[in-house]
Design a protein that fits this description.
Layout: H1 11-24, H2 30-49, H3 51-54, H4 70-75, H5 85-91, E1 108-112, E2 131-135, H6 136-142, E3 149-150, H7 154-179, E4 199-200, E5 203-204, E6 223-230, E7 233-241, H8 247-260, H9 262-265, H10 267-281, H11 288-306, H12 312-322, H13 324-334, H14 350-359
Antiparallel strand pairs: 1-2, 3-5, 4-5, 6-7
Helix pairs in contact: 1-2, 11-12
Length: about 350
């Protein structure tokens, strides 16, 4: 579930770390490296200070003047120097019990929102606002995508369009001759969609993934979930949108959730949570009020443990509290006897058991 986070560092602090690195580095070829870092810091000041305003249009953040030192800026992320010690602290996201991209309790590492490869944004490899906590599954789904796709020249685009139309017309004529029927009319859509916007200055600019640090609409929540029951076990059936979201924000979140495969990945976690809660209340014959109080207690402790209010586990407990039929089902399940624990049965032959006892 997309969630908002608070970045505790500012871009000015990252620039200070770069200046400190230039003043304290005394390694191999230190004079040339110090000169390169000093040159880079002059061009990075405008980029770092305007990142929060231009991250939706990253073509303004590209720096052609820094291509000669792209490898140096790319490797600063893995540097063990003292000024960049904060990056190692950012990698330790044990305080987050859920991924802010998907809301699932997975292994949390650091993701570069704008990729740091040499052809993209190596100069943003150590910018704190560009380092977002994310699980490995979300990083694999996100990949190195960023919204910078140069459009085709107008003449080439028109000529290719004509060739496609000619090929379609030839194919339709051949098909009509075989069937002895007139060809069907062509249905073409020329309007722009939220996920396919108009091209600006020859570049298609669209943002496909949410930014936990800079998307302010995530603070009020994005949507609630509705549960469906399959085989006596719940799973996420549909998303209930919040009213404050605009159409563009809904399109952004919808693509993000679909690309991260949140609904499919959350199925097993939701079912394990439900089975664990049923096992906890089994044999206790609790009433409706006790079930509601226990669910509210688990919801509060979960939000304190994960640090996120929009995790999948939290949304599951909220959906249970809104569903009276689910509460009644839990009350009925609490009257059933608690299952007995499995007992260990030795399957070894008698000769082997006696031999093991003799050795002991």
């Amino acid at each position: 579930m997309p969630s908002a986070l608070l970045c505790k560092r500012r871009a000015e602090q990252d620039l200070d770390a770069l200046h400190q690195y230039a003043s304290t580095y005394r390694g191999k070829d230190w004079k040339a490296r110090v000169q390169q870092v000093t040159t880079a810091s002059k061009h990075l000041e405008r980029v770092f200070l305007n990142y929060s305003r231009l991250f939706e249009k990253p073509r303004w953040l590209l720096q052609a003047r820094l291509r000669g030192i792209a490898s140096l800026l790319h490797d600063l992320y893995d540097s063990k120097a003292e000024p960049f010690r904060y990056i190692a602290e950012l990698r330790n996201y044990e305080r987050f019990g859920a991924c802010p991209y998907c809301g699932l309790p997975k292994n949390i590492t650091v993701d570069h929102y704008l990729p740091r490869n040499h052809k993209a944004f190596p100069h943003l490899s150590f910018l704190s606002l560009n380092l977002v906590p994310a699980c490995s599954d979300c990083q694999g789904s996100k990949g190195s995508f960023y919204p910078y796709k140069p459009a085709m020249p107008a003449k080439a685009y028109r000529s290719m369009g004509r060739l496609r139309l000619c090929e379609k017309e030839k194919a339709s004529i051949k098909k009509a001759r075989r069937a002895k029927t007139p060809p069907a009319p062509s249905l073409r859509v020329f309007e722009a969609t939220p996920l396919r916007p108009n091209k600006v200055l020859g570049v298609q600019e669209t943002r496909r993934f949410i930014h936990p640090y800079l998307d302010e609409f995530l603070h009020d929540g994005v949507f609630d979930v509705g549960l469906v029951w399959s085989g006596g076990r719940p799973e996420i059936g549909r998303f209930l949108w919040k009213r404050h979201l605009t159409d563009a924000q809904r399109a952004l979140v919808l693509f993000h959730v679909g690309k991260m495969k949140v609904k499919d990945r959350s199925r097993g976690i939701v079912r394990r949570l439900h089975m664990a809660f049923e096992k906890y209340i089994a044999g206790k014959s609790v009433n409706r009020e006790e079930v509601v109080d226990r669910l509210k207690f688990l919801l509060d402790t979960l939000q304190e443990r994960t640090g996120l209010a929009n995790s999948i586990e939290a949304k599951y407990f909220e959906a249970l509290l809104r569903d009276p039929a689910a509460i009644n089902q839990l009350v009925a399940a609490s009257a059933a006897p608690k299952p007995k624990p499995l007992t260990h049965v030795s399957t070894a032959v008698r000769k082997t058991v006696s031999h093991r006892r003799g050795r002991a």
